[in-house]
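Reopening: structure tokens for the zinc ion complex, inputs below.
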Amino acid sequence: MKTLTLLGIESSCDDTAAAVVRQGDGPAQILSSVVLGQNALHQPFGGVVPEIAARAHAERLDGCVAQALAEAGLALHQLDAIAVTAGPGLIGGVISGVMLAKGICAATGLPLIGVNHLAGHALTPRLTDGARFPYLMLLVSGGHCQFLVVHGPQEFTRLGGTIDDAPGEAFDKTARLLGLPQPGGPAVQAQAAQGDASRFALPRPLLDRPGCDMSFSGLKTAILRARDGVVAEKSGLTRQDRADLCASFQAAVVDVLAEKTRRALQAYLADAPVAPLLAVAGGVAANTAIRAALQEVCAQADVAFLAPPLALCTDNAAMIAYAGIERFRLGQYDTMALAARPRWPLDQHSPSLLGSGKKGAKA
Ligand code: KG4
Ligand code: ZN
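Re-run output (same inputs, fresh job):
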């Protein structure tokens, strides 16, 4: 196989990222991967502000790309193509990345490859572990939540997903309601370890309905009510109350994800895949209780479980460069007409999902 070296550019949410990935006959190699986060910029507003994100991407992308090339020890003319996230995401940021990629391609004559951000996440198990098609992917982050059967570089079946918020948003909101720091996931997880998950009976949304769709916005409201109930009773929250609320919340998310994963596996296994695999991606996949539950569900179904290193589970440009390599091998390039898209579902055949979260449009 021809050795390919691609620069990837990612700017669809609140991380400005650039990376260089190379692949020949063997496994792909990440030559560099630079991620410049924007947490501090958005912190005062309690969520990602699209205009601030877009401006920060526009200001930082050049330097980010220069750093990725320097760390890889390469110049632009040594690359085979430029891959860039062309959607879905916050449109100002996506446009910044696409414009930069087009500029580089116009100046160098390199081919331009537009990548779907979700395809980047979905193909990560191939970048890290050479996973064989078809595998099942659970993408759980602050902006996404969906089950995808990955049949090929461009072939995805969405088995289900959230109809409202992503689980990461629910973790972040729960943390906010309880006065814990952002991002909420790690803080809630730490509290939950000290708490009693059976103290508050929170709902398990959509478990009573067939299929793999999920809902997390009701859980946020349930936590708010439970908190207010305790505050009304004792005029304040003790450390134990807080821990019990976190444990009860996390247990509800774990139960929903575990049961929906069981169902998704059933659908996936019906096609008798040769090397059955469930892979996770997204920041929420860092949660140890969620990971343990998914691992257990997989063990019961005799399916391998793969959680790539966290830096490659969360937003990064190495996954975009790698997805670009897969498209390049199929001979699929874009032209200067490549458009930035706020919405871009991977599975064009499934009905699109409702809602738009704090981190942008959900595909
Ligand atoms: O994938 P990611 O870095 O960014 C996007 O969503 O784009 O995911 C961030 C989300 C945040 O909502 C954060 O609270 C959540 O992942 N998260 C966690 C944990 N670590 C991060 N949620 C639950 N438990 C964790 N340990
Ligand atoms: Zn993402």
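The first helix runs from residue 39 to 42. The chain is about 45% helix and 20% strand. Marking as resolved unless the reporter disagrees.
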